[in-house]
C-alpha cells in the first residue's frame, strides 16, 4: 500500500469496480486495488477495453470464449465475467469485429 506501480494496458485482463475502488487484474495473475472508480479508469484506457457490466471492464484481447448466448465472457485467465442484459448486443457487435474466430460447438 502507498506505492506506485506502472502498468501498460496490454497486461491488464480486466478491471472490477466496487464503489470508489477498482481491482485491476493482470495477465500474470496479479491483482491490484486502486482508489479510483471504474469509470475514471475506463476514460484512460483504449477502445479495446469493453464496459460489459456496471462492475466490469474487460480487455477484448483476453476474451477466449462467449458463453450462454453471449451473456458471459470467459477470459484467458479462467475468469468468467457477466455481461449485463442491456450490453449484450453492443458487446457482441464489438467482439464480432475483433480478430476472434467464432466457432460454435
UniProtKB/TrEMBL annotation:
Pfam families: LytTR
Domain HTH LytTR-type: 1-97
The organism's place on the tree of life at top rank: Bacteria
PANTHER family: STAGE 0 SPORULATION PROTEIN A HOMOLOG (PTHR37299:SF1), TRANSCRIPTIONAL REGULATOR-RELATED (PTHR37299)
Name of this protein: HTH LytTR-type domain-containing protein
Amino acid at each position: 500500500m502507498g506505492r506506485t506501480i506502472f502498468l501498460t494496458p496490454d497486461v491488464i485482463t480486466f478491471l472490477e469496480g466496487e464503489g470508489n475502488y477498482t481491482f485491476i487484474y493482470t495477465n500474470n495473475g496479479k491483482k491490484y486495488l486502486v482508489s479510483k472508480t471504474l469509470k475514471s479508469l475506463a476514460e484512460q484506457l483504449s477502445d479495446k477495453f469493453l464496459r460489459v457490466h456496471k462492475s466490469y471492464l474487460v480487455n477484448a484481447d483476453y476474451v477466449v470464449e462467449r458463453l450462454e448466448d453471449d451473456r458471459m465472457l470467459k477470459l484467458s485467465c479462467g475468469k468468467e465475467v457477466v455481461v449485463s442484459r442491456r450490453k449484450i448486443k453492443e458487446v457482441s457487435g464489438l467482439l464480432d469485429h475483433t480478430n476472434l474466430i467464432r466457432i460454435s460447438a
